[in-house]
Amino acid sequence: MKIDVISANPLKHASPALVIGCFEDAKDDLFTACDAALDGCLGRLTAGREFSGKANSTRLIHTLGKLPAERLLLVGLGKKAELDDERLRQAAGNAVQALRAARVASFATALHLAGRLETAPEAVTVGTLLGSYAFEQYKTKDKDERFGFEAMTLLLPKGGNRKEAGVRVGAAVTLCRGVGLARDLVSHPGNVVTTGYLADTARELAGRHGLGCRVYEQDELEELGMNALVGVGKGAAEPPRLIVLEYKGAGAKGRPVVLVGKGITFDSGGISIKPGAGMEEMKTDMAGAAAVLGTMAAAAGLKLAVNLVGIVPTAENMPDGKAYKPGDVLTSLSGQTIEITNTDAEGRLILCDALHFAQKYRPAAMIDLATLTGACVVALGHEASGLMGNDQRLVDALKRAGEECGERLWQLPLWDEYGEAMKSDIADLRNAAGSRDGGSITAGWFLKQFVGKTRWAHLDIAGTAWSDKARPYCPKGATGVGVRLLIEYLRGR
Ligand code: BES
Ligand code: MN
Ligand code: ZN
Q1: How much is the pLDDT for 159?
Q2: pLDDT band at 133 (very low <50, low <70, confident <90, very high)
Q3: Quick one: which of 56, 232, 301, 393 has the most CB atoms within 10 Å?
Q4: Which structural domains are found in the chain, ordered by start?
Q5: Of these residues, 89, 283, 348, 399, which one is catalytic?
Q6: What's the rounded Cα separation, in Å, for the pair 186 and 172?
Q7: Closest by alpha carbon to 257, among 311, 309, 210, 206?
């Protein structure tokens, strides 16, 4: 979608549709002026309770020549005192969903006029771009009937700083490209997004953005001693890999923030195989990797003044004669030995080697993202990602970033006592606890054994990487969770 920012009066600007925001408990000047131009039509709609202005409500009407815009789309903003950027993103997402339903491909918007001048254009752009996302690459039928948005025009008032708004809108576009990349990677099936595909994607990003890139192949991983990562990949035809991307936005010397993303391109459970029902969703088990790649692309595109290292351990978890199996003992890169008690607890194995490996970059902070446990979905559902860590300041900063951007996090404890469950009779650790109790925490506790003294946080995105229902600015399917969160966090540093 093409996006323009112009100075124009919404009442005088011609377009297929004009989008305006409406509060449920207040009428602003634009609403009143549109109502007057339409001979009181809007007042009738609200009086007749056909349009309430409540959050997540929309109403599309034809203007019949009474306004230069052919249509007027009213978008509910809820209570005036509650308006924030998240509400605006949602309103913009609801607007494009209504426009899509009516097949209106180009529109002008005044939604941002209801919000804070500095941040509202970015919020509206993010809501619009993410809300209009569609993944249709594998649909071959009725291609010419498919709908696609063409253009959005943001209308700024006369005194509004068009250049400033243009820069912020441009930043939103770059950010949404990163989210779009993450969503695409998660949406593609496991027979397309293999470990090699993730490596190629990283190389392509490196070429486009001037990033450092290194892909460690299986023989190198074996040589390095990354036996936990290699062990998980043993049963698959596609070999495991370790992908490293480097972005230097803050000079050669500054210690980097290191991002680590779980890249299981398909999780069958391995020999401890999963039940068949719903197993197809396990193509999304590389959503952490997708978030890291999307964040690296966005950070470089935004030219953030930070040093970043993105690390993606990637493998496919499959049962086979060569597969690792329950009872096996693996010696991790850190030297700690791990008894395999469940091959379906594979994420923590590929991550533990990557987290140990990451320490050679002397991270200022290290953040991992992983669709790690079903237990996290049980605990938090789909409204928040699990958050754990060994540094409360880092945890708090991430939590704040999540609230700011609408990707919420909820902290779980990592007390030593949880480690009891991860003791093995024969090795230093076991990879899965005997009971499911506190399953997200025991997984997080396991990871903690591999981060040394590095400031570290772990995000369990098992419940937030994929949405079974459409949300205001996220259609059903891959959410791209993590990209906006990490960029928000990095911007705040
Ligand atoms: N990838 C899964 C976790 C998952 C579950 C992600 C549901 C998204 C939705 C992970 O590898 C897994 O299988 N975890 C096991 C751990 C258990 C064996 C200790 C789980 O959660 O059951
Ligand atoms: Mn698993
Ligand atoms: Zn998994």
Answers
A1: 81
A2: very high
A3: 232
A4: 2-132 (3.40.220.10), 175-492 (3.40.630.10)
A5: 348
A6: 21
A7: 309
**Residue identifier of the C-alpha nearest atom 5 of ligand 1:** 374
- C-beta 373 within 6 A of ligand 1: yes
State residue 228's pLDDT score. Answer: 99
Tell me, using a 6 A CB cutoff, whether residue 371 lines ligand 1: yes
- For residue 83, report the distance from its CA to the centre of ligand 3, in Å: 38
C-alpha distances (whole Å) from 33 to each of 6, 13, 120, 206 are 20, 14, 21, 50
100 is catalytic: no
CA separation, residue 492 to residues 269, 282, 284, 404 (Å): 38, 33, 29, 11
Q: Per-residue pLDDT tens for 326-338?
A: 999 999 999 999 9
Q: What is the tens place of the pLDDT at every residue in 156-200?
A: 998 888 999 999 999 999 999 999 999 999 999 999 999 999 999
Alpha-carbon distances, residue 441 vs 257, 411, 421 (angstroms): 24, 10, 10
Instruction: Judge if the beta carbon of residue 342 lies within 6 A of ligand 1.
Output: yes
Ligand 1 neighbourhood includes 460 CB (under 6 angstroms): no
- Give residue 160's pLDDT: 80
DSSP secondary structure code for residue 236 in this structure: -
If you measure from the C-alpha of residue 344 to the centroid of ligand 1, how many angstroms do you get, rounded to a whole number?
Answer: 7
**Residue nearest atom 22 in ligand 1 by C-alpha distance:** 374
Ligand 1 atom closest to 442 (CA): 19
Residues 80, 58: Cα–Cα separation, whole Å: 16
| Of 258, 351, 252, 352, residue with least CA distance to 296 | 258
User: How many residues appear in the chain?
Assistant: 493
Query: Is the pLDDT higher at 117 or at 195?
Result: 195
Ligand 3 centroid from CA 371, angstroms: 6
What integer is the mean pLDDT of 281-296? Answer: 99
- Catalytic residue check, 423: no
Rounded average pLDDT over 231-241: 98
